[in-house]
Amino acid sequence: MRKIVASALFAALLLTLVSCSGKTNPIVIGGNSEVKENVYVVTGENGKQSFEYEITEKNTIAITGYTGSFDKHQVVIPDRIDSIEVTEIGPKAFYYDNSITTVTIPETVTKIGAWAFAGCTYLENINIPETVTEIGAGAFYKCTSLSSIELPGSLGEISNYTFYGCDLLETINIPEGVTAIGDSAFWGCNALVSVTGMEGVKSIGAYAFNDCSKLADISISAATEEIGEHAFNGCETLVIKVVAGSFAETYVMSYGYNYTK
Questions:
Q1: 13, 21, 78, 161: which sits with the fewest CB atoms below 10 Å from its CB?
Q2: Each residue of 189-206: pLDDT tens digit?
Q3: Terminus-to-terminus CA distance in the chain, angstroms?
Q4: Residue 248 and residue 244: Cα distance in Å, rounded?
Q5: What is the DSSP string of the chain?
């Protein structure tokens, strides 16, 4: 695959914008993306924003890296670059970028790679379109400002470490299509109080909800056939609702977790 850097703005345009208004206008990289208020591609006279990307085997684009200003700002990922659809956000594409606060993902994207937004400590809001079917391991690892997120109904799995250490995440609804929650997926989500929509989950990984100290209740259906070790350790106020005679009942009894039927 070819690695290419899509430059966001020519210097001449930047100078024109700054000289005319004293600040840059909202600009989106890519041909057809909608320009949104307060989405700044360039901040400051010498700033610039660019996406690094690769052409995939399917002749689509995977975003693999990003360079923006040091000031806090929002990012709109383009739906196309040079008329080619953007379908993936690659592994570590925004890894530990501490300047982005909001990310808008286009409906052309179907996959978010492993650790894509890991360590983005100022990321508060991200929209994930229904077209996304896969979110890789650790995608939102230690996004400590993320308080809520809506997962797409097309998702089939919550991978290992996906929301590990998301200190402010308060609620999560598991989409109906999700059948597996990976190891340590929600480890250390200290503000998490509510988890809903577990009806279709067949497996829960080891330490999946470890140290979710404010989690008050969760329901595990009869569909769940596998739960890894210490999945709910450190959940001091948790009462787990289970189905009588189910695998989940046997599991919670073996660990001495508080439960109800």
A1: 21
A2: 999 999 999 999 999 999
A3: 53
A4: 9
A5: --EEEEE---HHHHHHHHHHHSSPPB--SSSSPPP-TT-BS--STT---EEEEEE-TTS-EEEEEEE--SS-EEEE--SEETTEEEEEE-TTTTTT-TTEEEEE--TT--EE-TTTTTT-TT--EEE--TT--EE-TTTTTT-TT-------TT--EE-TTTTTT-TT--EEE--TT--EE-TTTTTT-TT--EEE--TT--EE-TTTTTT-TT--EEE--TT--EE-TTTTTT-TT-EEE--TTSHHHHHHHHHT--EE-
Q: Exposed/middle/buried for 21, CB within 10 Å: 0-12, 13-18, 19+?
A: exposed
C-alpha distances (whole Å) from 33 to each of 17, 30, 117 are: 20, 6, 21
All residues at 6 or more sequence positions from 196 whose CB lies less than 8 Å from its CB, including other chains:
171, 172, 173, 174
217 is written with which tokens? 């209740």
Q: What sign for the dihedral angle of Cα 107, 113, 114, 120? A: negative
Please give the distance of CA 128 from its chain centroid, rounded to a whole number.
8
Structure tokens at 69: 């200003």
Residue 139 CA to residue 89 CA, distance in Å, equals 10
Distance CA 71, CA 10 (A): 20
pLDDT value at residue 134: 98
**For residue 92, how many other CB atoms are within 10 A of its CB?**
20
């809506």: which residue's tokens? 150
